[in-house]
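Figure 6 in text form: structure in, sequence out.
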């Protein structure tokens, strides 16, 4: 790192961004002060205000950079057309995990609650855009599989949400490689997708299920055996 007293304006700005990202990731926006940012950078508070106008401005720059990096990875994974839905699940999962692996602090900043009042710049907005694209791909596949296409957006939200939440857990517990974790996520997501019912219902909970369970006949009915697939029969 360049000598603190000899840093150019650009170098100072980059230093403050790096320090801000680390502090926001470790402590959250609300718990970080301009005093702490300045003290960590070994500069006076006016320097921070000069470059960013305050803590909010620095935070906005950090978030914008991380959003751009993550957006490029995810959109790149979803760019190709006419690919198998499983490949989309694999690509999207690996893209997010790659971002987390290479930008752990940035991901921690994005995953925390944002103080911004502009929803278009939020992490949830970006994930919403990704979910929309995944939903469009799933919708076409649902139609070919004779499944209700109207449900595709919900399944897309589930897939993206499951991957993000698991990624947050993995970010602090790197006992698996990103490829190993991606395989686990895809295993659950795809095996569920590939055996979906067109009109799923709750078997043991909910109004109809409760009435059926309470009926006298149900006391003598044997437990339902799991369905056997053709692949199971031939194995």
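Output sequence:
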């Amino acid at each position: 790192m360049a000598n603190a007293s000899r840093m150019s304006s650009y170098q100072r700005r980059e230093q403050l961004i790096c320090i801000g990202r680390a502090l926001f990731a470790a402590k959250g926006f609300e718990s970080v002060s301009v005093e702490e940012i300045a003290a960590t950078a070994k500069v006076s508070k006016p320097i921070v205000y000069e470059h960013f106008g305050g803590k909010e401005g620095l935070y906005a720059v950090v978030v914008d950079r991380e959003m751009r990096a993550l957006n490029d990875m995810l959109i790149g994974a979803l760019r190709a057309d006419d690919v198998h839905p499983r490949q989309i699940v694999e690509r999207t999962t690996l893209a997010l995990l790659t971002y987390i692996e290479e930008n752990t602090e940035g991901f921690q900043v994005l995953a925390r609650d944002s103080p911004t009042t502009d929803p278009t710049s939020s992490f949830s907005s970006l994930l919403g855009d990704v979910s929309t694209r995944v939903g469009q791909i799933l919708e076409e596949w649902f139609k070919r599989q004779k499944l209700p296409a109207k449900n595709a957006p919900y399944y897309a939200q589930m897939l993206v949400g499951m991957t993000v939440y698991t990624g947050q857990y993995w970010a602090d517990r790197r006992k698996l490689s990103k490829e190993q974790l991606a395989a686990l996520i895809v295993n659950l997501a795809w095996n569920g997708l590939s055996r979906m019912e067109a009109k799923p219902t709750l078997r043991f909970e909910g109004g109809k299920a409760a009435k059926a369970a309470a009926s006298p006949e149900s006391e003598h009915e044997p437990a339902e055996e799991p369905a056997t697939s053709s692949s199971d029969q031939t194995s």
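Caption detail: DSSP finds eleven helices and no strands in the chain.
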